[in-house]
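quick one, two chains, predict together pls
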Amino acid sequence: MPWPQTRRIIGTKVQRLDGPDKATGRAKYSFDINRPGMLHARMLRCPHAHARVKSIDVSQAEKAPGVRAVHTIVKPDAELYWAGAEIAAVAADTEEHAEDALRAIRVDYQELPHLVKESEALTAKRRTVSGNAMTNVEAAGDFATANFDQQAYQGAAATVEGTYGVPIISHQCLESHGLVAEWNQDATELTVWASTQAVPNTANQLAQYFKLPATRVKCITHYMGGGFGSKFGPDIQGTVAAELARKARAPVKLMLDRAEEVTCGGQRPSAFGTVKVAGDNQGRLQAFEVDCYGSPGIGGAATVNFNLLPYVYSAPNVKRKHSRLRMNVQTARAMRAPGHPQNCLLTEQALDDLAARLNVNPLDMRLRNLPANDPNAVDNAPTSFLALRNTIYTREIDIIKKMCNWEQRWHAPGKGGGVVKTGLGVALHTWGGGGRGPNPTKVTISADGSVLAQSSSQDLGTAQRTVTAIIVAEVLGLQPRDITVQLGDSVHGPSTPSGGSTTCPGTSPAILKAAEAARSAFLAEIAPRLNAQAGDLTIEPGVIVNRTNNQRTPWRQACARLGMNPVQATGDWPPPGQLNAMTPAGAALRREWQQTLTNQGVGGIQVAEVKVDTETGVVRCTHVWAVQDCGMIINKQGCESQVAGGVIMGVNYALFEECIYDRATGRMVNPDMEFYKLGGIQDMPQIHVHMMDMPERGVIGIGEPPTISTAAAIANAIHNALGVRVPQAPYTPEHVLAALANRR
Amino acid sequence: MKNFTYFRPTSPEQAVGLLEARWGNTELLAGGTDLLDLQKEYIAQPSRIVSLAGVAQLNNVSIGDRAITLGAGMTIAAVAAHASVRQHAAALAQAAAEVGAPQIRNMGTLGGNLCQRNRCWYFRDEHTNCLLKGGPRCNALDGENKYHAVFTAGHRCVIVHPSTLAPALIALGASADVQAPNGRRTVELAKFFRAPTGPAEREHTLAANELVLSVTIPIAGTRSASYEVRHKQAYDWPLVQAAVAFQGGQNGAKATGVRIVLGHVAPTPYIAEAAQRALDNRAITEASATAAGRAAAEGAKPLSQNGYKLRLIEVAVKRALLLASGAKPYWEV
């Protein structure tokens, strides 16, 4: 089952079908759901960064005006490790009453020592997080290539060492985490309207928590306002809202407020590293040595995957030492290409510093250090990224060089004139983006000519309704707007979570299969009524054609022949069970799935232009050029929007974002949108996107990759403008002025 | 959020009559962009709210030969757009146009901007008992203070005053008409602000039962400008603001009556007297403006994380002076 050879709609620019609904407010997000008799819930959180709960008394809260239910989350003697840990929750008739009631809960805390600054946690002689270690620092694995110490730096034309860092940032979902929970009369069935990027998962986790059959819990997510990896399940607020709803016998809405969203909704771990690189006089890397650490907060497992270092490029001699630095702040959650932007920053800045020392043009530097195409993959999986990576990056560097007019714009570091200095910087990235299953999709064709496509998959930002409509319309000879798409309801069966840039590659073959099955069933159904054999009928845009006599029946007239019975077909790909079979048929399916219909592994490159006011240290990013490898495109407009969105996120990462924690109280001081800075439209560059499509590779997800290299490209552009490295992100006026002062 | 009784008087006298003489129990509501946040965050918990929406007099504007009088209820957007303000009080128009975002400018008022509370993140955190809320000491002194005051001598609380209209108005020599319980009085804006030291004080000198009626700006052939160094261009507070005003000063002529007022560097708008003296009766040139900028930073005692603001003071003063003198902004490319 290949993709259609000639594609009428797939790969073109189609406007988001639900754009007007989102822009006008007709689209209802979880936050907008209001059920009859609904209560509002709020959670009480530990105000201390580390404390033991001595006692909790909710009796006054239970009597507070408007309160209908109180749920205690922790027990006395619980040790809590961050300011934000959940204590109890209240449901009341209004949000204000719920807030007031929280303040009537009496909690006695024994405050314990905390550490919320990397610089302190690194050297402190005590442990302030869970576990048995002596300190908060945990070795996370060292690595060295053979004989590193003997040979790594021998005969190098230049060696440079630099220290670079990037702080913890927050997901800052525009729609905060949360949901509305509603039980049926006898509390045997639960429905939630949740802001989630994993609809069936959320329902299943709630079913497990409440020990209900999975069929008795329904999750609805028609629209969601951003997750970025932080919304894979009901979360604690999900179970708490459902507990309160059951206790109060009324629907309950529990959405985090902005401060909670920032302090509790997820974070991207910090990363700091001292990187030493050596190369020959052409800029070919000879050695890459890094000593780094980062903080996943109180979390133990999730951290920056420093095993990716050196990022993208290959070096013969590599040595890595890295530590996980646990602190009394919220735990890390996956965030749009977890680990990659940090690794990209650590690698690309070091590479540029070496290029500057060697007087090598940064683009040449990149070309000379690209990993080779893997010969084994070239033979066995010719459309795979491993087989093509050198080819892809080389082509991208060539494209972007022309796009941004690199030869004219670029100057040697610090060589531009004026008070406001212009600089150009480049960085590369990579990501997976392969598809998974199951994602069964149902397509229904009705007698009035309408077509309905249904799946439980959610729209995290993929413009998934539009993706679905494009594929169905392509197969049925219609236009995307002719297709009604229903998404985000667990009644439609299983679907895979939207994580890892997998939604489009994971669902699109299933949608294709469903649409083709619906077409076959439809033609078989109407053939006798058109006095034709099903095999003689074909679909052209808007018409059913009988190839034997060229009889042409418009779509609606053909559908009208269906009478009372709509045609329904369900498709899924890969076929459950068959894919993993260790048989020749299984192997063929895997090849088709992984190398033709979809694929994984992409490379991308971005160039940023900045203007740095050397008197004030203010950096403005004026242009970003992005070339993104993307396999086969379903919706070019959606793809380009994804890239632009990724760039915007990367600009914020480079210039503005930082979770700031107070040493003394252990509390975050900027859990808002006032001092947690996010750029507005005036702060954004002109974004120039080039999708380097390779349809022969199949569909690949690109939600994450375009955010990876933006910050590193900006860091390098600032270095290029000033001739001095600003080592610490975000690149604020204070950091820029400090770097300039150090040079003087 | 504490329940409150809402009053909607129609005259300044009525409004003031509804206020208590002590801070805490009663609050005036103008645009609401500050007060409602404070209430929702449990920082302000008044039991009485006196809305100014019905006090029509606060929207009066009069343009005379010698002065402009702007009603305190005028929105910040209206101030920014007013032709006479732009003509005679450029610094005010520029500062107003840069406040917050359109939503804030369309709701926030001139009087509210002058009387708003500070933005210190310790003050605004319900769970931090800072000096202004009755705590033992200011958390910013050895805490997170990159946005805090650099002129700290003699101050136990190191907030910065948030108003960006105030430095412009002080530079322009403006004064406020105030309704007090026993009549009206006029206060120079240069004497309107003070550094609070505890819960019983605000960032200004008005009593809890007083109300700003209007602001009067003299028309005196003044050239003026406001320049903000901002991290973000969209929706952000300045890191440092300089507002300047003087007579003469264009085309190499000498500037007289020089006023240089800084914002976001001290608990009150900060009048940079040394810089004023350095420039008075001198032509505005790159060199003299640079020297004035250096003088403006004299006497600063920055905290652990905000030393960078000294450099920004120098640059902001220089650029504001050059802008007011009509020079081409060399920093715009």
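The longest strand of chain B covers residues 238-248.
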